[in-house]
């Protein structure tokens, strides 16, 4: 299995303050990995640095074996796409769903005036179908519910056809009935050979959406292993400051 993402001794942050402190890990093609931890531990910062939104201070980021240093935005966008909590604020209400998803094809164009091809249309429709957004294709973005918009933005992410997708709290605004479908879409992406790294606060979603979990604490990796190993480790309760396993078991009793 090839390595889709390799992070080596990465340090990054904001305004001279280091949020991520010298972390290293690899993600293979076909692998779905979750990242979790307390607020402020560096989860979103990590994703933002990998996709180039913020610069790294030191270390290396390789995507599909290619060093991302000095890589042009379009080149990077063909390798990695990010679906984030702020994606909704980047949409334009005057555009239809179809137009919005087609924006994901921009990184495959030679210039801003390049025409939309039949391949672009086919890819966009396939991605809308995959995310359940195809029936919304002719609606305008401002006509959608929060959950519908999330589906559209995920379709746009898939339309980039990257090697790696980064998902920052992808379950936001999606109701309970949509969660199994979201998890299935992430799983299908990796089964088709893509790689996914998702940030989740909900540990149950981590376990459902991936097989591997990185637990972060103060900008460093506190645990890295299978979801079962990490969720049953002592470090989990040490980081959160209470018996997480006992709490989760107590909550689950209502379903018995």
Percentage of residues in DSSP E strands: 25-35%
Q: Tell me the number of helical segments per DSSP (H or I, 4 or more residues long).
A: 10
Number of strands: 10
How do the helices and strands follow one another from N- to C-terminus?
EEEHEEHEHHHEHEHEEHHH
| Radius of gyration computed on alpha carbons | 19 Å
Report the biggest beta sheet as strand number plus sense, adding barrel if it closes. 6 strands, mixed
Widest beta sheet: strand line-up: 6-7-8-3-9-10
* Model regions low in confidence, pLDDT < 50 over at least 5 residues: none
Helicity range = 25-40%
Structural class: alpha/beta
How far is it from the N-terminal to the C-terminal residue, by CA? 40 Å
Give the integer mean of the pLDDT values.
92
Described by the principal axes of the CA atoms, the overall outline is: globular
Structure description:
Helices cover 34% and strands 26% of the residues. The chain is globular and about 55 Å long. It has helices spanning 43-50, 73-77, 97-102, 118-131, 146-159, 179-191, 203-209, 227-231, 234-240, 244-252; strands spanning 3-14, 17-28, 32-36, 56-63, 66-67, 80-83, 164-168, 195-199, 212-217, 220-226. The mean pLDDT is 92. It starts with a strand and ends with a helix. The strands form 2 sheets. The chain has a 6-stranded mixed beta sheet, with helices on both faces. Strands 2-1-4-5 form a 4-stranded antiparallel beta sheet, covered by helices on one side. Strand 7 (164-168), helix 6 and strand 8 form a beta-alpha-beta unit.
């Amino acid at each position: 299995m090839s390595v889709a993402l390799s992070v080596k001794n990465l340090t990054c942050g904001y305004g001279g303050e280091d949020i991520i402190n010298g972390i290293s890990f690899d993600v293979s093609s076909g692998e779905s990995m979750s990242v979790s931890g307390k607020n402020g531990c560096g989860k979103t910062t990590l994703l933002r640095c990998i996709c180039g939104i913020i610069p790294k201070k030191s270390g290396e980021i390789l995507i599909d074996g290619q060093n991302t240093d000095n890589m042009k935005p379009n080149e990077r966008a063909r390798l990695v796409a990010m679906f984030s909590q702020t994606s909704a604020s980047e949409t334009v209400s005057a555009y239809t769903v179809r137009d919005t998803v087609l924006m994901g094809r921009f990184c495959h164009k030679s210039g801003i005036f390049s025409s939309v091809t039949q391949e672009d249309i086919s890819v966009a429709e396939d991605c809308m179908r995959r995310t359940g957004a195809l029936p919304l294709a002719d609606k305008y973005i401002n006509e959608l519910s929060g959950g519908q918009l999330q589906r559209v933005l995920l379709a746009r992410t898939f339309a980039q056809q990257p090697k790696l997708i980064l998902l920052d709290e992808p379950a936001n605004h999606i109701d309970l009935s949509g969660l199994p479908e979201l998890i299935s879409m992430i799983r299908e992406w990796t089964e088709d050979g893509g790689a996914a790294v998702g940030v989740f606060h909900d540990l149950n979603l981590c376990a459902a959406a991936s097989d591997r979990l990185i637990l972060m604490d103060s900008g460093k990796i506190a645990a890295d292993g299978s979801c079962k190993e990490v969720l049953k480790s002592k470090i989990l309760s040490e980081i959160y400051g209470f018996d997480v396993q006992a709490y989760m078991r107590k909550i689950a009793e209502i379903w018995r």
